[in-house]
Design goal:
The structure is a single chain. The chain contains two helices and nine strands. It is an alpha+beta fold and 171 residues long. A five-stranded antiparallel sheet has the order 2-9-4-7-6, with helices on one face. A hairpin with a 6-residue loop joins strand 6 and strand 7.
């Protein structure tokens, strides 16, 4: 076996990075659930991802956002009346309370937010129905752009409305 040259040793970091990038770019099969992977699956604009939750499972997805970006994610629920519940977490792992989530009994739900800090945000999808054997879903980032004043105003109004609806249900 030939002894490595100085030049071949200098190229090792490049080849290691190239292999890592090639592995990250490999598409995952639709049957492979994010929970079975070592790390969360990455979300990208206009790239729908499908999954199936079994009761008690949580699927995680990651997206890197710069501070001040507007993000909208649409979640389509599977058939049979089963729904999924999305929650989003900031880079410091705190739940983002001011993300606005519309829940629909029929049709898609949506999650909208404006990022406060730069970093990787984590979206968790849960199946709240303990009786459902399998809950299929599809998620897609439909908007990702710098937030406008109108976006921030609309999100604040939606949050206030949502809080009013919650308070209405209290005895």
């Amino acid at each position: 076996m030939a002894k490595p040259t100085q030049r071949s040793l200098e190229r090792l970091p490049f080849y290691g990075l190239l292999i890592l990038l090639l592995q990250l770019g490999q598409p995952h099969s639709a049957a492979e659930s994010p929970q079975q992977m070592n790390s969360p699956q990455t979300l990208a604009l206009s790239v729908p991802l499908e999954g199936q939750l079994v009761s008690g499972q949580i699927h995680s997805y990651a997206i890197f956002l710069a501070s001040g970006e507007y993000l909208r994610i649409v979640i389509e629920h599977g058939g049979g009346g089963s729904t999924v519940v999305p929650e989003i977490f900031a880079p410091d792992k705190t739940r983002i309370a001011d993300a606005f989530v519309t829940h629909a009994a029929r049709g898609p739900s949506a999650l909208s937010m404006v990022s406060e800090t730069t970093g990787t945000y984590l979206l968790e999808i849960r199946a709240p129905d303990k009786e459902a054997a399998v809950t299929p879903y599809k998620i897609e980032v439909t908007e990702r752009r710098p937030a406008t004043v109108d976006d921030k105003t609309r999100l604040a109004a939606q949050k206030a409305f949502q809080e009013g609806e919650r308070l209405k249900l209290k005895p």
